[in-house]
Amino acid sequence: MTNFSHAFITSWKAGGFYDLTDAMKSGRIVTVEYDQFTTAYHVDEAQQGDFIEWVAGMWPGDNDPAQKASEKTAEYLDRLGINVRAL
Prior knowledge:
- By secondary structure, the protein is an alpha+beta fold.
- It has one domain.
- Helices cover about 25% and strands about 25% of the residues.
- The protein is built from three helices and four strands.
- The protein has helices at about 20-25, 50-60, 75-80, and strands at about 10-15, 30-35, 35-40, 85.
- A four-stranded antiparallel beta sheet has the order 1-3-2-4.
- Strand 2 (about 30-35) and strand 3 form a beta hairpin.
- The longest helix has 11 residues, at about 50-60.
- It starts with 7 loop residues before the first strand and ends with a strand.
- About 10% of the residues are buried.
């Protein structure tokens, strides 16, 4: 699995805002919203699937339930309230 920690741009709390205008000049931005935080990453469109798999493996906390074998990654992230979206 690809490690996307190198693609990190910034993060902010709910209700806050970070101007991503300059970051958008450097490429496509994908945000992850979870537990009242938003975190932004540079992710190429071709890597979107790998990024979502990485989020599913890295984002949940110790107290979150594990992904069920029959559960698709998108369903798992939805169950945990993790939103991944491209800007």
